């Protein structure tokens, strides 16, 4: 590293200072004008050439409240360290002086000086992968003023110290990373410090006009995690200087005037990623510019110490920190040094240009979008003056982007300004490389005057192949219709379109304004989805993690909750939220959203909250049955969680969000928010929400299963649905502990002759990935032991050329068989069962029951991928498989 000798100068108060005096005794009415006067005072000519402009703000601008001065042995170097540093959220008022922990004497030279050899790191020296074992380290990064500390760790210490099970660099347990254990008690009990852990970079110089691209990987998990953010610290940062405490010695009577107040904005939030539990490493890229000396701070934040969730384990981890030239952030652009990876279309009517401010007060922005956030620069705009005519179009085309991971689409964020009486249209298009001649796909659009302000915007971008993005702006009816864009950035993960009115197809929805085009269906239960403020939730339920790293002004205040029954009872009732009709396509579509399903307590009967489902309803001349694509039951924890599901539908269709209350004995909550769509063949998240049409909890019927019991005069000799006054041995259902909603057979014959009942599934298709499937269910046995039996039988199905199914009744394979022997028949209880189904051809399952005095109950049938051992073990067939 190159060492630069910098003269550090502290401004002297206009009042004389004496030994032992407190600065609080002096004038405390420092105004902004006074501050600027202090900053602009003429400096002594012999000191001025040595002074870096950034050090005019040296110690006050980094929120130092108390300063210790120590001199390193054998060196004429002064080291600044903090004893007391307030949180960035507890900024010292601008009209207060700082207390200094050393004695003062009258200053006779007005400009006392002492020098510090300040090391300015290159961006290459900031890189850190935290090393593989056994050489784990934080590299040149250092812990700062947080009450928690970052530690270097590896997957081998996951269950000992905390952190993820593998690193991001090598994906092994031996690879290193830095992490914060968020449940640990504060290691430093000093009032006013950051409540989290702060990791400081070495001191950095100017980024240059093209900026610096910060790249890092992060992972977060656990109930005690609140967030992660990247801060820009302006000016000198004592935690960026590597210290060697054994070299420090004390000294006295150093003249250090320190009366200049701190600016309340000495740190800027560049990026944040709130709690995002995907159990995987995420990639982040941040482009920023700053013209002078600064440092970066990575801050991991736990939930508040008073939150009960603070007692639970959690970690925030980072890996592969790298700083590169701004061009490494592909597609990012703040237009300070040109168009970056964007270029003007050669076939449009005119070009986008770059400006620092409008010359016409009636249109265009006065300055770029980030000037009030320190990083001033340019912006791209269309000039609507002569010779432009109404309807002229200018296009700005991005570089090509590779197809994103179907489970991690791109979210583009940008700022726009549309001010003036002649504003035309601003649109964002997606161009797929597989068909460059196809019509551009419009994904975002606004028109008309939006007022003299910059607005943040975002939209999810998904594609099955390489693609480009195109900004298109058009001239309105007058020459006062300048349209501008600025600060284009990208993040991983889906994001609902913002602002809401910019949605080309109104299907994304944040519920900040209204329910968009989603509507409640009329329901006899008189239960509806209700739009409410998050303030109705307890503080721990308000932890909505969705931000996508954006530091804009979106509040994420409103969401939809499943309303309570109009009858006043806690439990019971169904509500459906239906989308407008969507156009079918050969391209797969992914729906993403956030949900909360929380029960404050669960009694001895079991969970009772309810169910959240997503259905697809195809629309054609012969409407098919609704097809479930996502489903979860009961409590899923106190925090908001991320969900997604895949849609493959060539016919036009509607989407249903269905919420069903169980008994809800603890008065819990079911809610949804931030619905978004993108093109991509995504997987179901969380995996437990995977669902097939044959899965059934019997709360709304028998889900396509068919009763094929041979005709019998006794209507009770069949499979039946349980309800309040018709159920065996007062058995509650397994799903909610309610008084019905399962199926059973209960047979009594006077002649003790066994009778058979059968329930058959619909045809179950398989894919190349479904070589083995685990069929799971819950059962309860009752009645005479030996004569009561339940069997699971598989039958093969063939299809003719017209797609008609033909079942081979002679080819029945016994998979599972169990009698009621050994169970507590007078007081039946639910038992878990499962069995593997092998094969790659379509099939049906038959639930065959046999009894003369007794029966079985079945609930919560589910098909899951991969093989599983037979349970109970005694249910293995004991006879030939050929029936």
From TrEMBL:
Ranges of Polar residues composition bias in the record: 182-194
Domain MAM: 126-331, 331-497, 507-684, 694-870
Cellular component aspect of the GO annotation: membrane
InterPro entries cross-referenced by the UniProt entry: ConA-like_dom_sf (IPR013320), MAM_dom (IPR000998), MAM_domain-containing (IPR051560)
Gene3D superfamilies: 2.60.120.200
Location of the region described as Disordered in the Swiss-Prot/TrEMBL record: 182-203
CDD domains tied to this protein: MAM (cd06263)
Chain coiled-coil ranges: none
Superkingdom as given in the UniProt entry: Eukaryota
One Pfam family named in its UniProt record: MAM
Name of the molecule in the record: MAM domain-containing protein
């Amino acid at each position: 590293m190159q060492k630069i000798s910098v003269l550090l100068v502290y401004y002297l108060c206009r009042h004389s200072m004496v030994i032992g005096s407190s600065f609080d005794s002096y004038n405390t009415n420092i105004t902004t004008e006074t501050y600027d006067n202090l900053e602009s005072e003429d400096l002594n000519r012999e000191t001025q050439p040595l002074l870096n402009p950034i050090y005019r703000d040296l110690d006050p601008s980094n929120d130092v409240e108390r300063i210790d001065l120590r001199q390193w042995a054998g060196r004429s170097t002064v080291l600044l360290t903090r004893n007391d540093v307030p949180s960035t959220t507890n900024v010292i008022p601008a009209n207060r002086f700082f207390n200094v922990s050393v004695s003062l004497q009258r200053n006779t030279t007005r400009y006392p000086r002492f020098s510090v050899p300040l090391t300015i790191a290159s961006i290459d020296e900031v890189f850190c992968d935290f090393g593989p074992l056994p050489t784990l380290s934080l590299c040149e990064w250092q812990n700062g003023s947080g009450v928690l500390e970052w530690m270097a760790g590896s997957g081998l210490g996951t269950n000992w110290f905390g952190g993820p099970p593998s690193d991001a660099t090598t994906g092994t347990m031996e690879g290193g990373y830095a992490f914060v254990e968020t449940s640990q008690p504060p290691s430093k009990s000093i009032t006013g410090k950051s409540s989290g852990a702060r990791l400081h970079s070495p001191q950095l110089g100017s980024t240059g006009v093209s900026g610096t691209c910060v790249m890092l990987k992060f992972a977060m998990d656990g109930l005690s995690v609140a967030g992660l953010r990247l801060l820009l610290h302006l000016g000198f940062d004592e935690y960026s200087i590597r210290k060697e405490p054994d070299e420090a010695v004390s000294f006295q009577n150093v003249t250090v005037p320190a009366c200049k107040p701190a600016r309340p904005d000495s740190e800027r939030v560049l990026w944040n990623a709130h709690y995002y539990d995907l159990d995987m490493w995420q990639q982040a890229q941040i482009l920023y510019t700053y013209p002078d000396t600064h440092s970066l701070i990575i801050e991991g934040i736990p939930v508040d110490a008073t939150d009960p969730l603070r007692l639970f384990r959690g970690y925030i981890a980072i890996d592969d920190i790298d700083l590169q030239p701004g061009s490494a952030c592909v597609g990012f652009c703040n237009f300070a040094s040109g168009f970056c990876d964007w270029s003007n279309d050669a076939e449009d009517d005119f070009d986008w240009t770059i400006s620092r401010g409008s010359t016409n007060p009636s249109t265009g922005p006065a300055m770029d979008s980030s000037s009030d956030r320190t990083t001033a620069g340019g912006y791209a705009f269309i000039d609507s003056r002569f010779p432009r005519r109404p309807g002229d179009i200018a296009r700005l085309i991005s570089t090509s982007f590779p197809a994103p991971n179907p489970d991690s689409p791109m979210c583009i964020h940008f700022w726009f300004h549309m001010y003036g009486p002649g504003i035309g249209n601003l649109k964002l298009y997606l161009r797929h490389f597989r068909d460059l001649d196809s019509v551009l796909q419009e994904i975002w659009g606004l028109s008309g005057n939006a007022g003299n302000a910059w607005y943040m915007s975002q939209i999810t971008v998904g594609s099955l192949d390489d693609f480009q993005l195109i900004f298109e702006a058009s001239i309105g009816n007058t020459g006062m219709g300048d349209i501008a864009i600025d600060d284009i950035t990208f993040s991983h993960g889906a994001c609902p379109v913002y602002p809401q009115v910019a949605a080309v197809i109104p299907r994304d929805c944040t519920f900040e304004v209204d329910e968009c085009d989603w509507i409640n269906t009329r329901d006899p239960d008189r239960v509806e989805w209700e739009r409410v403020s998050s303030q109705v939730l307890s503080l721990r339920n308000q932890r909505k993690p969705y931000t996508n790293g954006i530091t804009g002004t979106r509040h994420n205040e409103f969401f939809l909750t499943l309303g309570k029954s109009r009858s006043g009872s806690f439990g019971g009732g169904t509500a459906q939220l239906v989308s407008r009709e969507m156009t079918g396509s050969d391209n797969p579509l992914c729906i993403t959203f956030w949900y909360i399903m929380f029960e404050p307590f669960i009694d001895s009967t079991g969970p009772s909250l309810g169910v959240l489902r997503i259905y697809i309803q195809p629309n054609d001349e012969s409407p098919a049955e609704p097809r479930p694509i996502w489903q979860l039951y009961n409590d899923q924890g106190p925090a908001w969680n991320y969900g997604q599901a895949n849609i493959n539908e060539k016919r036009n269709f509607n989407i249903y969000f269905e919420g069903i209350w169980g008994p809800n004995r603890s008065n819990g909550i079911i809610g949804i928010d931030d619905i978004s769509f993108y093109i991509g063949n995504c997987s179901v998240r969380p995996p437990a929400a995977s669902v097939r049409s044959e899965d059934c909890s019997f709360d709304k019927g028998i889900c396509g299963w068919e009763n094929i019991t041979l005709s019998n005069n006794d209507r009770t000799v069949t499979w039946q649905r349980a309800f309040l006054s018709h159920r065996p041995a007062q058995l509650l259902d397994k799903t909610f502990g309610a008084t019905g909603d399962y199926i059973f057979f209960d047979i009594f014959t006077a002649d003790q002759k066994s009778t058979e009942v059968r329930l058959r599934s619909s045809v179950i298709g398989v894919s190349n990935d479904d070589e083995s499937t685990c069929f799971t269910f819950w059962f309860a046995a009752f009645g005479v032991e030996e004569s009561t039996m339940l069997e699971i039988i598989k039958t093969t199905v063939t299809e003719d050329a017209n797609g008609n199914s033909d079942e081979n009744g002679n080819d029945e394979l016994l998979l599972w068989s169990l009698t009621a022997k050994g169970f507590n028949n007078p007081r039946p209880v639910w038992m878990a069962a499962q069995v593997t189904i092998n094969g790659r051809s379509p099939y049906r399952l038959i639930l065959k029951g046999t009894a003369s005095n007794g029966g079985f109950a079945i609930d919560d049938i589910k098909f899951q991928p991969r093989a599983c051992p037979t349970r109970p073990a005694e249910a293995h067939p004991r006879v030939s498989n050929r029936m």
